[in-house]
């Protein structure tokens, strides 16, 4: 397709692809829509022609035919600063982006930390601007998931939903079992006064990790003591404040399970300021196995969440919903990673 100097290059069309491939326009269309009822030789010829011509699918034209946008949203219902501070959100975003890219579907990042922002995004998404939503950090009492479902938008939640009376597709690590594994480990190295810094108790991780902690104490014949419990918000500063609070209440504390690596970084700083050696005086365990665990000093013993699998499963469930399949849930196992802090 030669272009004269100063002349604008014409965008290649499906007809150009068909001509170069030596097949019908219908065959090209079938290849672009999944390759059903197309021979391997014809599919190879079409794909070679696409590369040669530089053809790009006209998403607007396709959406008029299919009623779909060919895009999805990654919706984080937390303040914007949390997205930049917490490394887990970035890992999830990258994993979901890569999983959707394999299907040639772009992922739009949406941040909605306030009620008004959430209302605005629900209106936007409910108007058909994306085909589905990967919802991150859905808190108890938040209406976002329910509103999206009522608007007919396919939704997959990261974490166990806190809503009752409505079926929601979700993917989660086994928070409770991960907490049990960590507390058992702290007890196995001879600790008996084990404190916990929970996540927010209106989130699934906050609730489930506290429940796992309590179960192992009971299993070991140890009394649950509320003064050994403090709550953070998954930020580094909240971990430091919670550790200071626990030390003030129970200076005899000899172990600390912190429900996120980022909070554990803050807790390590607070313990250091108080003159407590880790792990000699206080053993510390985190949760996530994020970059914060490796960057901590000492390096953090933690519970590994399988972020790549979580991302891949969320995308798989979302694509299935978009195709009209029923909602479902996937719970993935966690793993203890031993380092220097416990």
Describe the structure.
The chain is α/β, with parallel strands linked by helices. It contains 14 helices and twelve strands. The strands form three sheets. A six-stranded parallel β-sheet has the order 2-1-3-4-5-11, sandwiched between helices. Helix 1 packs across helix 3, helix 6 crosses helix 14 and helix 11 crosses helix 12. The longest helix is centred in the middle third of the chain and has 16 residues. The relative contact order is 0.11. The model has no long low-confidence stretch (mean pLDDT 88).
**Mean pLDDT metric:** 88
Output the structural class: alpha/beta
The major pleated sheet works out as: 6 strands, parallel
Instruction: Determine the fraction of residues in helical runs and give it as a percent range.
Output: 40-55%
Order of helices and strands: HHHHEHHEHEHEEHEHEHEHEHEHEE
Which helices and strands occur, and which strands form pairs?
Elements: H1 14-21, H2 25-32, H3 40-53, H4 59-66, E1 72-76, H5 80-85, H6 87-101, E2 107-111, H7 115-129, E3 133-136, H8 144-150, E4 155-158, E5 169-173, H9 175-188, E6 194-198, H10 204-219, E7 229-231, H11 236-249, E8 255-258, H12 261-273, E9 283-285, H13 291-295, E10 302-304, H14 307-322, E11 329-332, E12 335-337
Parallel strand pairs: 1-2, 1-3, 3-4, 4-5, 5-11, 6-7, 6-8, 8-9
Antiparallel strand pairs: 10-12
Helix pairs in contact: 1-2, 1-3, 6-14, 9-10, 11-12
């Amino acid at each position: 397709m030669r272009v004269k100097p100063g002349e604008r290059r014409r965008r290649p069309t499906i007809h150009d692809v068909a001509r170069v491939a030596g097949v019908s326009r219908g065959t090209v269309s079938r290849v672009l829509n999944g390759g059903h009822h197309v021979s391997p030789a014809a599919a190879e010829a079409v794909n070679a022609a696409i590369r040669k011509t530089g053809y790009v699918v006209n998403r607007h034209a396709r959406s008029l035919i299919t009623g779909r946008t060919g895009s999805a949203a990654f919706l984080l219902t937390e303040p914007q600063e949390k997205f930049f501070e917490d490394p887990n959100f970035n890992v999830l975003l990258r994993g979901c982006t890569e999983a959707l890219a394999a299907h040639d579907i772009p992922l739009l990042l949406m941040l909605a930390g306030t009620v008004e922002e959430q209302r605005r995004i629900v209106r936007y998404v409910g108007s058909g601007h994306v085909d589905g939503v990967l919802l991150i950090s859905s808190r108890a009492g938040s209406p976002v998931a329910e509103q999206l479902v009522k608007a007919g938008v396919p939704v997959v939640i990261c974490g166990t939903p806190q809503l009752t009376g409505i079926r929601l597709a979700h993917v989660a690590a086994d928070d409770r079992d991960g907490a049990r594994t960590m507390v058992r480990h702290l007890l196995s190295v001879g600790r008996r006064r084990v404190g916990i810094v929970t996540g927010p108790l209106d989130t699934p991780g906050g609730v489930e990790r506290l429940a796992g902690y309590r179960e192992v104490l009971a299993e070991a014949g140890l009394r649950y003591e509320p003064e050994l419990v403090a709550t953070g918000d998954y930020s580094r500063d909240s971990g430091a404040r919670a550790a200071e609070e626990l030390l003030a209440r129970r200076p005899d504390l000899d172990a600390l399970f912190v429900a996120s690596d980022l909070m554990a970084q803050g807790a390590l700083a607070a313990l250091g300021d108080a003159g407590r050696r880790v792990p000699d005086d206080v053993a510390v365990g985190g949760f996530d196995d994020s970059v914060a665990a490796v960057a901590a000093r000492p390096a953090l013993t933690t519970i590994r969440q399988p972020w790549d699998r979580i991302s891949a499963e969320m995308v798989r469930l979302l694509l299935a919903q978009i195709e009209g399949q029923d909602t479902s849930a996937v719970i993935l196992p966690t793993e203890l990673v031993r380092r220097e802090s416990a």
